[in-house]
Specification:
The protein has 5 helices and 7 strands, in the order αββαβαβαβαββ. By secondary structure, it is an alpha/beta fold. The radius of gyration is 22 Å and the shape is elongated.
Length: 168
């Protein structure tokens, strides 16, 4: 006689939050400001503006774009902002910085509006494994939002979790 296999996790009060569900789908693109500079290093305002005006911005339609300036190049702050003004009408999101900065922005936008009410006094786990990149910063933001409201907070998987917080 065999025993029926029971999924005790699904029957428990444990609430699992998978940050992978916050991942915004879309093509991520890093655009270097160096592409618009004379010889890739010198910003001459007139030629910089002309290159921007004549550039095919439509290729970034619905992309998630990071406007990047290599460390070796020194440009005035307004130059990045000017590039953003060309990208904003065609992209889903644009940030001045790296692709990592872009991921931080996308997750932060989602987490700012995350409703913690369903987790009040709950047993909550932040899921550890994911197939999509989840920034450490996003996990930190989520933990900071949950700590004041949950009874217990852990990280990982149901079979091997790490306790993070327990309400006194």
């Amino acid at each position: 006689m065999s025993k029926e296999i029971v999924n005790r996790v699904s029957k428990s009060a444990l609430q699992v939050i998978d940050l992978e569900e916050f991942y915004q789908e879309g093509t991520r693109t890093q655009l270097s400001i160096a592409d618009f500079l004379d010889d890739g290093v010198v910003l001459r305002e007139q030629s910089f503006r002309e290159r921007l005006e004549n550039y095919a911005w439509e290729m970034y339609r619905n992309h998630l774009v990071a406007v990047y300036c290599p460390d070796a190049i020194i440009i005035p702050q307004w130059a990045s902002l000017l590039v953003v003004t060309y990208l904003q009408p065609v992209t889903k999101a644009v940030v001045v910085g790296t692709l990592q900065d872009l991921e931080h922005l996308l997750f932060t936008e989602k987490l700012v509006t995350f409703d913690t009410k369903p987790f009040i006094n709950g047993l909550v786990m932040i899921k550890g494994c994911s197939n999509k990149p989840v920034p450490q910063q996003a996990m930190g933001l989520l933990a900071a939002k949950l700590t004041p409201v949950v009874r217990k907070l852990s990280y990982g998987e149901a079979c091997s979790s790490v306790p993070l917080y327990k309400k006194p």
